[in-house]
Amino acid sequence: MNKLMVLHRRLSCCDAFLADWGVSVASLAIRCYVGWQFLKSGMVKVQDWNATLDLFRYEYMAPLLPPELAAYMGAAGELLLPMLLFIGLLTRPAALALCAVNVMAVLSYPQLFTFDCPAAINDHFYWGALLLVVVAMGPGRLSLDAWLARSGR
């Protein structure tokens, strides 16, 4: 019976190790995938800033913000927050902030709900859900947050 208990403890430790690393790899994959989606959007915005400003002035209807400020904030969020996700620094706040950028994008462009192809709005829901998974799971071991916590900084 004693050997069976030792074997059970070893397997439990192995399960915990695999689960911990599985969560870490999943978190990294989600962070990179969703971060890349937003980074691409931010890069498009800065490639033609005049077109971006026109979109925010005449197409997007950001609530409570002047169009120019909304354009700057949207582009900054889409460029900086994914970088934090990629390296896993301030991961939960960055994921939550990117979730807010995502919600603002959906609220500012209600035409997403009227497209014949629902892929555009579904993508936003999917990205939002994945960002909330990162908020709930955390960055995992493969992050600067975890390294800083281990080093006591």
From TrEMBL:
It comes from the Bacteria. It is found in: Cell membrane. Pfam families: DoxX. InterPro entries: DoxX, DoxX-like_oxidoreductase. Keywords: Cell membrane, Membrane, Transmembrane, Transmembrane helix. The chain crosses the membrane at residues 21-39, 69-87, 94-113, 125-144. It is a multi-pass membrane protein. The keyword Transferase does not apply. The keyword Transmembrane applies. One of its GO terms (cellular component) is plasma membrane. Belongs to the DoxX family. This is DoxX family membrane protein. It comes from Pseudoduganella rivuli.
